[in-house]
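Is this the right way to post structure tokens for a design question? Let me know if I should format differently. Anyway, here goes:
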């Protein structure tokens, strides 16, 4: 069926990472990894938090997965941008070196896949994902993004979770599954 044991949609966040996992047996698991921190945290505390989230993500993803990871939003200048970037690279490195294939997908493509518009707001994405996947437990913006990312992966494998309009599927044309990336 596939060279992967599971497909994972992953929406990283310092506070609530959304993960949608399909072990290719039809049993989709959606969850959040919660974390708290303060702007006044020391460098060591911030690093510990990033590593903790990355370890928890790595544990949930497992090995030999196709991971569709929301790419960084380079235009974003709000929040803890530097820490979010560190988290993104820490997770990417852990997953890529542990036997998974990681496919970053730009936020505008995730939004267009979910709604038909690349500039849709988070609530529109949530509403469309809840409507399109009624049997999947989607309880917030982070899990909505994760489910959309999961279905992008399933479409790339030719095993879509549900029908998605042709306009929305146009984002798939620019996304390919690379060979595994293994850091030196």
């Amino acid at each position: 069926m596939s060279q992967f044991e599971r497909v994972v949609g992953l929406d990283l966040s310092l506070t609530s990472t959304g993960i949608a996992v399909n072990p290719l047996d039809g049993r989709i698991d959606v969850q959040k990894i919660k974390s708290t921190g303060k702007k006044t945290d020391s460098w060591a505390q911030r690093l510990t938090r990033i590593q903790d989230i990355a370890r928890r993500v790595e544990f949930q993803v497992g090995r030999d997965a196709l991971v569709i990871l929301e790419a960084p939003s380079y235009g974003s200048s709000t929040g803890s941008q530097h820490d979010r970037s560190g988290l993104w690279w820490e997770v990417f490195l852990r997953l890529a070196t542990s036997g998974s294939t990681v496919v970053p997908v730009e936020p505008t493509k995730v939004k267009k896949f979910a709604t038909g518009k690349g500039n849709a707001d988070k609530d529109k994405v949530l509403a469309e994902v809840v409507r399109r996947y009624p049997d999947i437990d989607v309880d917030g913006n982070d899990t909505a993004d994760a489910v959309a990312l999961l279905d992008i992966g399933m479409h790339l494998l030719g095993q879509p979770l549900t029908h998605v309009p042709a306009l929305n599927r146009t984002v798939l044309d620019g996304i390919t599954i690379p060979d595994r990336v293994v850091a030196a």
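Format looks fine. Someone answered above. Worth noting: The two ends are 30 Å apart (CA to CA). The chain has a mean pLDDT of 91.
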